[in-house]
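Thread amino acids onto this structure.
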C-alpha cells in the first residue's frame, strides 16, 4: 500500500486553521494533506470516510493522576494506567502526562520516577509522559533535576501549597523555582493557602459542620487568589523561570494571572471542565452525594464559570486539562466513603479524597459547548499542552511529515445527541459528575500513530494496553525564556 490510512471528506481543525482536507498516514506519521475527496480512491490499507465531520489532533491531557498513593485525603485512585488510558482514548485523548509522585518520606525523585515507569509500562492505551510531583524538595532531591531533565525526558514539576502530605513552604518554593530554572524545567503550582484552609476546617468542624458541602466553605476564593498572588510574587524573585498555575477556578486568581502576563512575567495557567460545568451547588446534593464533586479548588458559582470561559477565550489560560483524579464513590476502603463513620453519617469533608474523574468527558463537553471557536478548542486541549510540555509538533497538530498521526474524527454535525452516563464510560470509577448531561458530539474514531484505537460504532475500544509509548519530553517551547536577558530591576538570586 502507498498509505497505511487515509481519511477523506473531513474538515480539519488545528489551532491555526479550519479547512477541508483528506489526510494520508504512513509509518505512524501524517504524510499528506490533500484537497478534499482527492484521496478517496487512494491505495491505502484502510480508508475512513469522515462524512463531513470535523477532524482534530488527538487530545493532549497533561494533568492526570493515575495509581498514586493516598495524598489528597484518605482514599486511593480508582484508575490504573490501564483503565485511565482506556478511558482517555474513548474520549479522544491520545497523549497524557501523568505524575511521578515523590512522597515526603521518599528522598529520591529518580526512585519515584522508576516506580511510576513500572506501573505504566505495558499498561497504557495511549502515549504518555510524566511530570515530577515534588513532595520533599531536599537539596539531594533537587540535585536530581539535572538527570531528570537531561536524560529522563522529565521537563516539568508540580509543587503544592496545600495538602499535609505535599505542602511546601515559601522558602522551599523558591529553592524549587531556582533549581527548575537551572534545569530548564516548568514548575506547575497548586495554589491554595493550606494553613488557612486547615484553620477554617477546624472552625467548621468545631461547629459540627462536616458534610461535603462545607468543603467549599473551607476553601473560599480568596485562598486561591492569595496563594496565586504569592506564587506569582515568589516567581518574580527568580527572573525568567516559567510557572503554571494549575486548575484555576477563581476570577480573582485569573485577574492576577492576567496582570502578571501583561507585565511580561512568564506565568501560564490551566483550567479544567469542573470549573466550566459544575458549581458549588453540586456539592450541596442530599446526604453524601455532594462528595462526588469534591475536588480542590472546589467548583465555584455561575459568574465564575463565565469568567473562566472568558479567560480561555482571551488567552489567560494556556491549557484546559482534566485533572482526572478519580476515587470510587461507594467504597468505604479506598473511595469517597472512607470518611463516613457512625458519628459522621454524611462523612467528614476533611477526609474525603479530593478529585473527580474526567479524562473521557473533557473533549466532548468542551467541543460541544459552543463556547470556544474550534481553533481555540484545539489550541487549549491539544496544541498548547504539547507546546507547553515539550511534545510539539510531534503531538498537538496535523503537520505533514512532522506530526504523529494522532487524530480524532468527530461525527458529522447535527447527527448525535449523546447523554452521558457512567455506564458508557471506560474508567474504573463508579460515577461521573456529568451523569445525565447531553453533549452534541463525541469522538467517533480515535487514532494514535496511525492506528485506530477507538471506533465508537464498531467495537469501541479496539486498541491495546501495550500500544502506548513513553515520551521523553524536551523543554517547554512556550516557557523557553531561561536564557533571555534578566528582566530589568528583577531581583535575581542567581546573581548574588
Ligand atoms: O482535587 C483535586 N484537584 N485532586 C487532584 C490533586 C490535585 O491537587 O491536582
Ligand atoms: Zn501497513
Ligand atoms: Zn493540584
Ligand atoms: Zn491534579
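Threaded sequence (496 positions):
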Amino acid at each position: 500500500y502507498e498509505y497505511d490510512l487515509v481519511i477523506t471528506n473531513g474538515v480539519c481543525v488545528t489551532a491555526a486553521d479550519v479547512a477541508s482536507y483528506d489526510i494520508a498516514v504512513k509509518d505512524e506519521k501524517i504524510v499528506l494533506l490533500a484537497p478534499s475527496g482527492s484521496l478517496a480512491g487512494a491505495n491505502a490499507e484502510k480508508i475512513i470516510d469522515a462524512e463531513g465531520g470535523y477532524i482534530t489532533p488527538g487530545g493532549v491531557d497533561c494533568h492526570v493522576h493515575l495509581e498514586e498513593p493516598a495524598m489528597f485525603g484518605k482514599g486511593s485512585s480508582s484508575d490504573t494506567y490501564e483503565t485511565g488510558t482506556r478511558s482517555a482514548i474513548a474520549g479522544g485523548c491520545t497523549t497524557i502526562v501523568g505524575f511521578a509522585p515523590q512522597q515526603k518520606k521518599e528522598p529520591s525523585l529518580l526512585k519515584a520516577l522508576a516506580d511510576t515507569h513500572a506501573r505504566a509500562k505495558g499498561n497504557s492505551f495511549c502515549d504518555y509522559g510524566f511530570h515530577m510531583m515534588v513532595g520533599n524538595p531536599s537539596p539531594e532531591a533537587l540535585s536530581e533535576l539535572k538527570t531528570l531533565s537531561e536524560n529522563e525526558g522529565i521537563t516539568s514539576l508540580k509543587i503544592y501549597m496545600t495538602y499535609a502530605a505535599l505542602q511546601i513552604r515559601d522558602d522551599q518554593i523558591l529553592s524549587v523555582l531556582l533549581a527548575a530554572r537551572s534545569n530548564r524545567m516548568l514548575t506547575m503550582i497548586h495554589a491554595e493557602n493550606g494553613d488557612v484552609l486547615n484553620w477554617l476546617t477546624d472552625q467548621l468542624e468545631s461547629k459540627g459542620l462536616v458534610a461535603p458541602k462545607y468543603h467549599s466553605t473551607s476553601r473560599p476564593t480568596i485562598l486561591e487568589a492569595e496563594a496565586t498572588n504569592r506564587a506569582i510574587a515568589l516567581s518574580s524573585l527568580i527572573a525568567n523561570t516559567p510557572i503554571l498555575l494549575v486548575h484555576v477556578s477563581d476570577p480573582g486568581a485569573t485577574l492576577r494571572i492576567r496582570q502578571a502576563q501583561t507585565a511580561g512575567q512568564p506565568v501560564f495557567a490551566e483550567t479544567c471542565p469542573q470549573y466550566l460545568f459544575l458549581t458549588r451547588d453540586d456539592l450541596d446534593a442530599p446526604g453524601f452525594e455532594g462528595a462526588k464533586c469534591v475536588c480542590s479548588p472546589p467548583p465555584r458559582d455561575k459568574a465564575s464559570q463565565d469568567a473562566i470561559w472568558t479567560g480561555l477565550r482571551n488567552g489567560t489560560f494556556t491549557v484546559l486539562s482534566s485533572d482526572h483524579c478519580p476515587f470510587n464513590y461507594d467504597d468505604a476502603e479506598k473511595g469517597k466513603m472512607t470518611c463516613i463513620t457512625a458519628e459522621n453519617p454524611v462523612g467528614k469533608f476533611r477526609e474525603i479524597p479530593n478529585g473527580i474523574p474526567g479524562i473521557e468527558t473533557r473533549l466532548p463537553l468542551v467541543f460541544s459547548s459552543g463556547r470556544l471557536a474550534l481553533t481555540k478548542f484545539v489550541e487549549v486541549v491539544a496544541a498548547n499542552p504539547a507546546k507547553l510540555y515539550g511534545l510539539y509538533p510531534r503531538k498537538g497538530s496535523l503537520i505533514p511529515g512532522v506530526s504523529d498521526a494522532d487524530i480524532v474524527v468527530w461525527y458529522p454535525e447535527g447527527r448525535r445527541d449523546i447523554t452521558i452516563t457512567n455506564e458508557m464510560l471506560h474508567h474504573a470509577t463508579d460515577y461521573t459528575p456529568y451523569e445525565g448531561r447531553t453533549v452534541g458530539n463525541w469522538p467517533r474514531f480515535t487514532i494514535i500513530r496511525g492506528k485506530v484505537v477507538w471506533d465508537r460504532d464498531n467495537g469501541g475500544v479496539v486498541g491495546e494496553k501495550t500500544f502506548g509509548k513513553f515520551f521523553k519530553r524536551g523543554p517547554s517551547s512556550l516557557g523557553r525564556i531561561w536564557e533571555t536577558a534578566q528582566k530589568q530591576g528583577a531581583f535575581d538570586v542567581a546573581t548574588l
